[in-house]
Automatic annotation (TrEMBL):
Residues 6-63 form the HTH lysR-type domain. Keywords: DNA-binding, Transcription, Transcription regulation. This is LysR substrate-binding domain-containing protein. The keyword Transcription regulation applies. Pfam families: HTH_1 (PF00126), LysR_substrate (PF03466). The keyword Signal does not apply. InterPro entries: LTTR (IPR050176), LysR_HTH_N (IPR000847), LysR_subst-bd (IPR005119).
């Protein structure tokens, strides 16, 4: 029997659609119209010679054959991308500059830097781990090629929302509250002492969200400690000086997210995690770095 070759572009659309949850989103990601995406999937089924999808409510789900193909598609695409990257990476020189939030520094850097170094042996990568305002400022001054920031990315020339995460109250393990009105070291709505808030120095969207939530809940508060670094912030929380807010990601073992009802704490909004770039068009190296970041973050986020 003659061998059949699977269309690698169709495989990429197939894998992207499954990863994103809908082929409408895949249409935007791969830069093809919905009709072109449907044609690709139909062609892929013809090449495979079996049904890849089945009806599931109002949508589609993978058949057993579709699940099998998905596993191989990921391997094929990874090998294809690695081959092309290795070929071009041998000839590439220069540097790329990456900026990350402190929350993500150790969390994703090992994966991302290792993958980039293996694929771009002739290039070097410079990283800056710092606060949101500095990252946004450096993108605006074209000092960073790529950054991951909290919020919507402002006026960055290129933006991509990676995730929407809940803000949570963070307390020290030894000062964890046992119920409403019992937030150790932090005060509460039922306590005569003000709520003790640990915050960053200067402007911070997490700080603003905490203050607004406490004000709306009619909880008196006071800032017990400020820091210019996330490590300093979390050290103060671990020591029982008060409570702060972040997202659940990247928290060290000495602190923990508090239950929403703990000590009468008010609810908090969600926040976007956004990848931004100083240019609308990416060089191959920056595009590779963006994909490495996207993959590392998506793999580590709670689903």
């Amino acid at each position: 029997m003659a061998a059949h070759n699977l269309d690698i572009n169709a495989l990429r659309t197939f894998e992207t659609g499954v990863a994103l949850g809908t082929f409408a989103k895949a249409s935007d990601r791969v830069g093809r119209s919905p009709a072109a995406v449907s044609a690709q999937l139909k062609k892929l089924e013809q090449q495979a010679g079996v049904d890849l999808f089945r009806k599931s409510g109002r949508g589609l789900a993978l058949t057993e054959a579709g699940e099998t193909l998905l596993s191989y598609a990921r391997q094929i695409l990874a090998a294809n991308d690695a081959a092309l990257t290795a070929i071009h990476g041998m000839q590439a020189h220069g540097k790329v500059c990456l900026g990350l939030q402190e929350d993500l520094g150790e969390w994703v850097l090992t994966d991302v830097l290792g993958r980039f170094a293996r694929a771009h042996k002739g290039m070097r990568i410079e990283t800056r781990v710092c606060r949101n305002a500095e990252l946004m400022d450096r993108i605006a001054r074209d000092e960073l090629d790529l950054a991951v920031v909290w919020g919507n990315g402002g006026g960055a020339p290129w933006r991509e929302t990676l995730a929407r995460l809940p803000m949570v109250w963070i307390g020290g393990l030894d000062a964890a509250p046992q119920g409403r009105g019992a937030t150790a070291g932090a005060g509460s709505a039922d306590d005569a002492s003000p709520f003790q808030l640990v915050t960053f120095e200067g402007t911070c969207l997490f700080k603003t969200a905490a203050q607004q939530a406490l004000n709306q809940a009619n909880i008196t508060w006071d800032i017990s400690f400020t820091s210019s670094s996330l490590n300093g912030l979390l050290a103060a929380v671990a020591a029982g000086l008060g409570v702060t807010i972040r997202t659940p990601i990247g928290l060290p073992p000495r602190v923990a997210a508090l239950a929403p009802s703990a000590g009468g704490l008010p609810s908090l909004p969600d926040v976007d995690l956004t990848m931004i770039s100083s240019r609308a068009e990416h060089s191959p190296a920056v595009a590779f770095l963006a994909d490495a970041l996207r993959t590392a973050i998506h793999h580590r986020l709670p689903h």
